[in-house]
Design goal:
heterodimer; A: about 450 residues; alpha+beta; Jelly Rolls; 2 domains; 4-stranded antiparallel beta sheet; about 15% helix; about 30% strand; globular; B: about 550 residues; Porin; 13 helices; 14 strands; about 35% strand
Chain lengths: ~450, ~550
C-alpha cells in the first residue's frame, strides 16, 4: 500500500516536472513590445494576436501587418525587432547550438549579445536565412531584409561581424555554417545584397553614409512619407570623374594650424582617419564578384541596389561616391527615388511617364563607378502592369490563413536566374559565319595507299 | 590695504590666466575634435559644433576676421559636402567678404556656383583658382566646360587647349576629357555646316583619336570609342553591316588556335575480324591535333566582301604501330572567300565563291616521317537564300582536284550540298545533305570510284544551366562503289553529342563524343568506331 502511494507520488511529481521542463525548454523569446497588429502561430497549433509579455516557443511563426513593430527578447538577452509586413519563423533556438531564424519576407533588426552561448569566435552564433540567402551572425547589430517578390535579400551591419551567402537552388540546408563560411564577410557600415541576377551576394560595399546613419538610428522601422527627392546637378562636369574634381583636407588643415595654432598632423587625428582604398571604392565586376562603388544606396525593402553613377563626386573623407542625381535618403534611412521614379511592389525601380503612359522598368546592372551610367541613362524597358500606388513599401505579407504562404518551411529554393536561357545557340563562330558541320565526322573509311 | 589689493589682483590674474588657458585648451581640443568629425564625414555634427564655436569668437578680437573667416570657410566646405549648395555659397561669400582667402577657396566656391548654374560667376571663381595655382588643370577644365555650356565655343576650345601646355601632374587627370570635349565642340560646329561628312572625317574623329591616345583603357576611352563608332555609322565612314544586314567583321581580322586531345578506338576502321588478329595499339590510339586559322575581311562595298584565309592543322597519333602511323598528317591551306549580297524574291541572298588550295602531307609509309601526299585545289560556288525568313538555306557546288603524289590516288570530287538552318523557340536545327562523286583518274584505282549520299542533322540547344551549350547530331552516309558492285552499298550511321563551354571571352572548351557503325556486304567494310575529343580554342 505504501509502496503504491510512493510510486503514485513519484509518477505524479516526476511526470509534472518532466512536462514543465519540456514546456520551459521550448520557450525561447518573450515579447517586449508590440505596436500595431502581429499574429503568431505556435508549433502546437496555438495561434492569435501577439501580446506584450507573451512567451514564444521554438517553431513559432510570427507575422506582422503594415505599420507594425514587434520587439522580442531571447533567452540569451539578444533582442530582435521585427519590421512591418514581415513573416518569420523561430526555427531553432537551443542552449547548445546556434539558433536559426527563417525570414520569409520583411525585415528584422537584431542585436545579438556578444558572449552569446560563449561559442567559438569563428563560428556563427545565430543563422538568419531567407529563401535565397543565409547569414551567420558572429557579432552584434544588423539589419536583415528579404522580399518574396523581388527574391532579394539585403543585409546591413551596424556593429560586429556577419558572414552572408546565397543559397544555391537545391542546396542542402543541414550545414548552414558550411554555406556561410564560403560567403561574404561584412564589416560595420557595409551592405551586401543577394539578388537573383548574381550568383553570389554583392561584395560588401560601404553604404551611403546618410542612409547608414538613418538606418542605424531607426531601430523601430519608422517610415517617412517622402516619395521623391529633387535631383541636384552634379559638381562633376561631363568627361571628368568625382575623384579628379574632389579635394582633400590639406588646405583646411593648414588654415587651422595658421589661424588657431592647432597642429592636426600628430596624435590621435592621424590614427582615427578613415583609410581609403580608391580602386576598391570604385567598385568592380570580376566574374561572379560584383561590388558596387562605396556610397551605394539600397532600397532595403526590395533589395534594389542604386550604385553611384559616373557623375558622382568623391568624398575623400568618407571614401564614398556621392550621387546627387540617383535619389536620396530619408531621415529614417529609406532610399527615396528621384522625381519621376518609383519603386513597385514587385521590387522594381520604374521611371514614370509624366503623360500617364506605361512606366518603364529601370534595369540596373552594377558596374564600377566610372562605367556606371546615371539613373537617367540606365537602360529601361516598357512594362505592362505595375502597381505603383504603394510605391515605397514592400509587398503585403498577407495573413496566417493565406494558403499561398502558410508553409514557410517547405518553400522550394528560387530557380536560378535564367537570363541566358534564350540565348541563340552556338551556331556562329568565325566572325559571324555559319559553320558547316565538320566533314570528317561523316567521311567514309580512309584507305591509305603506300608510296 | 595696498598689499591686500595687490594680493587680490595677483590671485585674480592667476585665476583669469588659468581660465583663459583652460578655455584655450578646450577650444583647441574642440577644434581637434571637430576636424576629426570632418575627416570622418560627419558634416552635420561639424556644423553644429562650429556654430557653438562661433559664439565664442569676440567681434573685437585682434584676429577676428581670420578666426571668423576660417569658421565660415569650414562651414561652407561642410555644407558643400552635404550637397547643401545654397548654404555653402552663403558661407563662402561671408568668408570672402571678410577677405579670408585660402589657396582652395575659389575652387570650392566655383564648384558651388557651378552646381547652382551660376556659370559666369563660377567661371570667374575658377579663374581666380587658376591664379592661386590650385588644381590648375581641373580649374581650366571647369572654365572651358562652363564656356561650352554658355555656347562660347571659342573660349571653350582656348581653355581646353591651355590644358595641353600644363605640366604632366596638372594635366594628366583631365587631358583625355579635354581632348574629347574639343572633339565635341568641333562636331557641334561642323554639324551646323554644309559638309559635315568631310569635317567629321578630317577633324572630329582625329580629335577623338588623339583623346584615345592618352589612355586607351580608361572608362572614358570606351565612351570616346562609342562616339567614334556612332559617327562612323552616321556618316557611313566605316561599313558596319552589309546591305542585307549581315554584320561586318569588326575587327576585320580573326585568329583562332586550337588544341585537341582525342581517343579513337578504331583509327583504321577495321572490322571485328581484322581487329581480332591485331593488338589494340594497332587499331586504337589517342591522338592530338594542333590547329591555326586566320582570316582578314575586306569590304570594298556594302554588297561585296572578300577574305583571304590561312590555316594549318597537324594530327598526330600517340601509337607507334605501323598500322596507325599512316594516319599522322598535317595540312597547310590557303583560301580566298568572296561573297556578293543581293536579294531573291525581296529577301536577302548571298552568292559565295570560295577558292582554296591545300597542301597535304602524311606518313603513309609509316616511317615516322611526313611526306607530301597531295595538293588539292578546290572551288565552291554557293547560294544562300531565305525561303523562310531568317532561316537560311544554302546550296553548294564544289569541285575538288586531288593531285596526289601517287598516280593511283589522283582523283576528282564533285559534290552538291544543301544546308538548312531552322530556328525554333527552344532548339536550332541544322540539316546538311551532300551528294558527291569521286573519280580516280588511273584505271587500276577506278574500282574505288564512289558516289556517296550523306544526310546529317544537328540539334543545337540553348545554354544548359549556364554550364555548356549542348548539340546532338546524327548522320547517315550511303556509299556506292560504282565500278565494283560486289562491295555493295556500305551504310555508315553515326550519332554524337557535343558540349561547348566558353571559359572566357577568348577561351572555349568543347567535349565531343561520337559513335559510328558501318554495315556492308563485305565483311572487311563492316566496322564500329568511337571517338571522344576534348578541344580547347583560343580566339584572338
Amino acid at each position: 500500500m505504501n509502496i503504491k502511494k510512493l510510486l503514485l507520488v513519484i509518477l505524479i511529481v516526476g511526470g509534472s516536472l518532466f512536462a514543465f521542463s519540456g514546456q520551459d525548454s521550448k520557450k525561447v523569446a518573450i515579447v517586449k513590445l508590440v505596436r500595431g497588429n502581429a499574429q503568431m502561430l505556435a508549433p502546437d497549433g496555438e495561434k492569435g494576436k501577439i501580446k506584450k509579455g507573451q512567451w514564444l516557443k521554438e517553431g513559432t511563426i510570427i507575422k506582422t501587418s503594415g505599420k507594425t513593430f514587434v520587439r522580442l527578447s531571447f533567452i540569451d538577452k539578444s533582442s530582435m525587432n521585427i519590421g512591418p509586413k514581415s513573416e518569420l519563423k523561430i526555427e531553432k533556438f537551443s542552449k547548445s547550438e546556434a539558433g536559426v531564424i527563417n525570414v520569409l519576407t520583411g525585415k528584422i533588426r537584431s542585436q545579438v549579445t556578444k558572449d552569446y552561448l560563449k561559442m567559438d569566435k569563428d563560428k556563427s552564433k545565430l543563422f538568419v536565412k531567407s529563401r535565397n540567402a543565409v547569414m551567420g551572425v558572429r557579432g552584434t547589430d544588423f539589419l536583415f531584409s528579404t522580399n518574396k517578390r523581388s527574391g532579394a535579400t539585403t543585409t546591413v551591419l551596424f556593429e560586429g561581424s556577419i558572414v552572408f551567402n546565397k543559397i544555391k537552388p537545391g542546396e542542402s540546408l543541414r550545414d548552414l555554417e558550411a554555406i556561410v563560411n564560403k560567403g561574404r564577410r561584412i564589416k560595420p557600415g557595409e551592405v551586401s545584397v543577394a539578388m537573383k541576377r548574381y550568383k553570389k551576394p554583392t561584395v560588401p560595399a560601404k553604404m551611403n553614409a546618410q542612409q547608414f546613419e538613418g538606418l542605424n538610428k531607426n531601430k523601430t522601422f519608422e517610415v517617412s512619407n517622402e516619395k521623391n527627392v529633387k535631383s541636384v546637378k552634379s559638381r562633376v562636369p561631363a568627361g571628368l570623374t568625382g575623384d579628379v574634381v574632389s579635394s582633400d583636407n590639406t588646405q583646411l588643415k593648414q588654415e587651422i594650424k595658421k589661424v588657431i595654432k592647432v597642429d592636426l598632423d600628430n596624435g590621435s587625428n592621424q590614427q582615427n582617419k578613415v583609410s581609403v582604398d580608391m580602386e576598391s571604392s570604385k567598385g568592380f565586376v570580376k566574374g561572379d564578384d560584383v561590388k558596387p562603388a562605396d556610397g551605394v544606396m539600397v532600397h532595403v525593402d526590395t533589395g534594389i541596389v542604386i550604385p553611384p553613377g559616373a557623375d558622382s563626386s568623391f568624398d575623400q573623407n568618407s571614401g564614398q561616391w556621392i550621387s546627387t542625381t540617383n535619389g536620396g535618403v530619408s531621415q529614417a534611412g529609406e532610399y527615396i527615388p528621384p522625381e519621376g521614379y518609383s519603386v513597385t511592389d514587385e521590387g522594381q525601380l520604374v521611371k514614370l511617364d509624366p503623360s500617364g503612359g506605361k512606366p518603364e522598368m529601370v534595369e540596373i546592372d552594377i558596374k564600377p563607378v566610372d562605367e556606371m551610367p546615371t539613373l537617367e541613362a540606365v537602360p529601361r524597358k516598357k512594362i505592362d502592369s505595375t502597381n505603383i500606388d504603394d510605391a515605397s513599401g514592400p509587398e503585403p505579407a498577407g495573413t496566417l490563413d493565406d494558403p499561398s504562404d502558410s508553409n514557410i518551411l517547405e518553400q522550394p529554393p528560387l530557380p536560378e536566374d535564367c537570363s541566358t536561357c534564350n540565348q541563340p545557340p552556338n551556331l556562329f563562330k568565325e566572325g559571324g559565319a555559319v559553320l558547316p558541320p565538320p566533314p570528317s565526322k561523316t567521311r567514309v573509311k580512309i584507305k591509305v595507299n603506300k608510296r | 590695504m595696498n598689499e591686500k589689493l595687490c594680493r587680490f589682483i595677483f590671485v585674480m590674474f592667476i585665476f583669469l590666466g588659468l581660465l583663459t588657458s583652460a578655455w584655450a585648451k578646450n577650444s583647441k581640443e574642440l577644434i581637434s575634435e571637430v576636424f576629426m568629425k570632418f575627416e570622418n564625414a560627419k558634416y552635420s555634427e561639424v556644423i553644429a559644433v562650429l556654430n557653438q564655436l562661433e559664439k565664442r569668437i569676440k567681434p573685437n578680437a585682434k584676429n577676428y576676421n581670420k578666426v571668423q573667416g576660417l569658421v565660415y570657410y569650414w562651414k561652407a566646405m561642410s555644407y558643400s559636402r552635404l550637397n547643401d549648395y545654397e548654404f555653402a555659397e552663403k558661407f563662402f561669400i561671408k568668408a570672402l567678404d571678410l577677405k579670408y582667402f585660402t589657396q582652395d577657396i575659389y575652387y570650392e566656391y566655383g564648384q558651388v556656383l557651378y552646381v547652382a548654374s551660376k556659370y559666369k560667376r563660377a567661371r570667374i571663381a575658377f579663374k581666380k583658382s587658376v591664379n592661386s595655382k590650385y588644381k590648375v588643370g581641373v580649374s581650366l577644365y571647369y572654365i572651358a566646360f562652363i564656356s561650352q555650356e554658355l555656347k562660347d565655343y571659342k573660349k571653350a576650345v582656348r581653355f581646353y587647349k591651355m590644358i595641353e601646355r600644363l605640366p604632366a601632374e596638372e594635366k594628366n587627370s583631365v587631358l583625355q576629357a579635354a581632348r574629347m570635349q574639343v572633339g565635341d565642340v568641333y562636331l557641334q560646329q561642323i554639324e551646323r555646316g554644309n559638309d559635315p561628312f568631310q569635317g567629321v572625317k578630317e577633324y572630329v574623329i582625329p580629335q577623338y583619336e588623339q583623346a584615345l591616345e592618352v589612355d586607351e583603357k580608361s572608362a572614358l576611352a570606351a565612351q570616346i570609342r562609342q562616339k567614334i563608332e556612332s559617327l562612323q555609322r552616321k556618316y557611313e565612314i566605316v561599313l558596319f553591316r552589309m546591305r542585307n544586314g549581315k554584320p561586318t567583321a569588326r575587327p576585320p581580322h580573326y585568329i583562332r588556335a586550337n588544341f585537341l586531345y582525342g581517343l579513337n578506338d578504331n583509327v583504321s576502321a577495321s572490322s571485328e575480324d581484322t581487329k581480332s588478329n591485331l593488338s589494340t595499339e594497332d587499331y586504337s590510339s589517342s591522338y592530338y591535333e594542333v590547329g591555326f586559322f586566320s582570316r582578314y575581311s575586306f569590304y570594298p562595298s556594302d554588297s561585296f566582301a572578300y577574305a583571304p584565309e590561312f590555316s594549318f592543322g597537324l594530327t598526330q597519333y600517340t601509337s607507334d604501330s605501323t598500322n596507325i602511323l599512316p594516319y599522322n598528317k598535317y595540312y597547310v591551306k590557303g583560301a580566298l572567300k568572296m561573297n556578293y549580297e543581293h536579294s531573291y524574291k525581296s529577301r536577302p541572298a548571298t552568292f559565295y565563291i570560295d577558292l582554296d588550295y591545300t597542301y597535304n602531307a602524311d606518313d603513309a609509309d609509316a616511317d615516322e616521317e611526313f611526306a607530301v601526299s597531295d595538293n588539292t585545289y578546290g572551288i565552291t560556288l554557293s547560294e544562300e537564300l531565305q525561303f523562310w525568313q531568317n532561316n537560311p538555306s544554302t546550296f553548294r557546288f564544289r569541285f575538288e582536284n586531288i593531285s596526289a603524289q601517287l598516280e593511283a590516288d589522283k582523283s576528282t570530287i564533285l559534290s552538291l550540298t544543301f544546308e538548312q538552318v531552322i530556328y525554333l523557340s527552344k532548339v536550332t536545327l541544322f540539316s546538311y545533305n551532300n551528294y558527291s562523286v569521286t573519280n580516280y583518274s588511273e584505271e587500276t584505282s577506278q574500282a574505288n570510284n564512289t558516289t556517296s549520299l550523306t544526310t546529317r542533322l544537328d540539334a543545337i540547344f540553348p545554354t544548359f544551366y549556364k554550364l555548356f551549350n549542348p548539340t546532338l547530331y546524327t548522320s547517315l552516309t550511303q556509299l556506292e562503289y560504282v565500278e565494283n558492285t560486289s562491295r555493295g552499298k556500305p551504310l555508315l550511321s553515326k550519332f554524337g553529342v557535343n558540349l561547348n563551354r566558353p571559359l572566357s571571352k577568348k577561351w572555349y572548351l568543347t567535349l565531343d563524343y561520337s559513335f559510328g557503325s558501318q554495315a556492308a556486304d563485305e565483311d572487311s567494310d563492316v566496322y564500329k568506331q568511337q571517338l571522344i575529343t576534348l578541344n580547347l580554342d583560343y580566339i584572338y
